[in-house]
From TrEMBL:
It comes from the Bacteria. Gene3D superfamilies: YVTN repeat-like/Quinoprotein amine dehydrogenase. Keywords: Signal. The keyword Signal applies. Residues 1-24 form the signal peptide. SUPFAM superfamilies: C-terminal (heme d1) domain of cytochrome cd1-nitrite reductase. This is YncE family protein. InterPro entries: Haem_d1_sf, Host-pathogen_enzymatic-act, WD40/YVTN_repeat-like_dom_sf.
Length: 387
């Protein structure tokens, strides 16, 4: 019996379809053919600005020491900066922050703010401000800088692109440390001569709230991501205090147990430096007299002391990597947060120790900055709505 012609054609067509489909499928998995290229891995760098411990050039010289976080914090390069005072000497670095909107890193010194392009590494502008400058903070959109005068009566509000002054906010509190809230609506302004934390509304650039009073004048501070709690160092306390950013009330005083206050080399207060792990589960506290970091469980209130870590030198500041894996005290020790172990120490291109209270993490992709950390160890959980 003869097979109909149309059946033969149908069988031949099916065989051609199956072979073609198989060839396409096999070609899709062959390396180097149609497989999508993997996204380039972000370069994670730690920018450490010096002299970041007073004007001590022995802790890293004058400029920016850059380290590769992905490569055991190996030294990468050195970037020259401005910041020369009228006597021709490098001025104390007071703060550092990054704007992805302008692709710039900003460094405050005793007298001025300098703006450096992160791609070209060129100084774009450097301007002095009335009353000097202390630790600056930049808005989340990267457009506005809140610059405290140097322990004087006011904060200067600055355009991040031009450096031009927008306005001033007078607090008469000895302006010092500054945190721009993650939601961009509030700025937290701590003065060396006040037990009250001033909170400014960023739409009007006016103080609309105060938090406290705390037991003594406020030193370094940090906040949680939802901007409901503030954790502050105060003069005379080996420990920290907590305030409610919503109600403005003082909440708790937490004292370090098992250690004496002792004498400190710098800053004049036992605890100068406090940070919160990005997941907000722990508070890490500096102890200048005992060269230690004290770790507290922040899942309970008030937080409970857990352990202590001995450092190579006095810590005067602490912050964390964006992923929460590393803690960065100003001593230059790099601590694994999970194990509490010091995994390496910062050293420059000549194997000299690098220490600084002013450092910030920056991520690059295709040579451009795409993410940045913060200098204050701010919590990163933002699920709690603010009123």
């Amino acid at each position: 019996m003869k097979t109909p012609k149309n059946v033969i054609l149908l069988l031949l067509g099916s065989l051609f379809f199956l072979s073609t489909t198989a060839w396409i499928a096999s070609s899709e998995v062959l390396p180097g053919r149609n497989a999508p290229k993997p996204a380039p891995k972000a370069q994670r760098l730690l920018y450490v600005v010096t002299p970041g411990v007073r004007n001590y050039l022995g802790y890293g010289g004058h400029g920016i020491q850059v380290f590769d976080i992905n490569n055991n914090h190996r030294f990468v390069k050195f970037i020259k900066t401005g910041g020369i005072n009228k006597k021709g000497k490098p001025s104390n670095v007071k703060g550092v922050d990054v704007s992805l909107a302008t692709n710039c890193i900003y460094i405050s010194t005793l007298e001025a703010i300098q703006c450096i392009d992160l791609v070209t590494e060129k100084l774009l502008w450097e301007k002095e401000y009335e009353g000097g400058v202390d630790r600056i903070s930049i808005s989340p959109d990267g457009k506005i800088i809140y610059a405290p005068s140097l322990e004087k009566e006011f904060w200067t509000v600055v355009d991040a692109k031009t450096g031009n002054v927008i306005t001033k906010i007078v607090t008469n509190s000895g302006s010092h440390n500054t945190i721009y809230g993650p939601d961009g609506k509030a700025v937290y302004m701590a003065g060396l001569k006040s037990t009250m934390l001033n909170v400014a509304d960023t739409k009007t650039h006016t103080v609309t709230k105060q938090v406290g009073p705390f037991s003594a004048d406020i030193r370094p501070l940090t906040i949680n991501g939802s901007q409901t709690l503030v954790y502050v160092n105060v003069n005379g306390l080996l420990g920290f205090e907590i305030g409610d950013l919503v109600t403005g009330k003082f909440l708790h005083r937490v004292v370090v147990e098992g250690f004496n206050i002792g004498e400190v080399k710098r800053h004049g207060c036992p605890s100068h430096g406090i940070g919160m792990t990005p997941d907000e589960k722990e508070i890490w506290l500096c102890d200048g007299a005992n060269n230690r970091i004290h770790v507290f469980d922040n899942t309970v209130m008030p937080p409970v002391q857990k352990t202590s870590i001995l450092l190579r030198d006095m810590p005067g500041w602490i912050t964390f990597s964006l992923d929460g894996k590393y803690a960065y005290p100003s001593s230059g020790d790099i601590i694994d947060v999970k194990t509490r172990k010091i995994v390496t120490t910062l050293e420059d291109g000549q194997n000299n120790w690098v220490q600084s209270e002013k450092m910030v993490e920056i991520h690059f992709a295709d040579g451009k900055p795409v993410a940045a950390g913060d200098q204050f160890g701010i919590g990163q959980l933002k699920q709690v709505a603010r009123n």
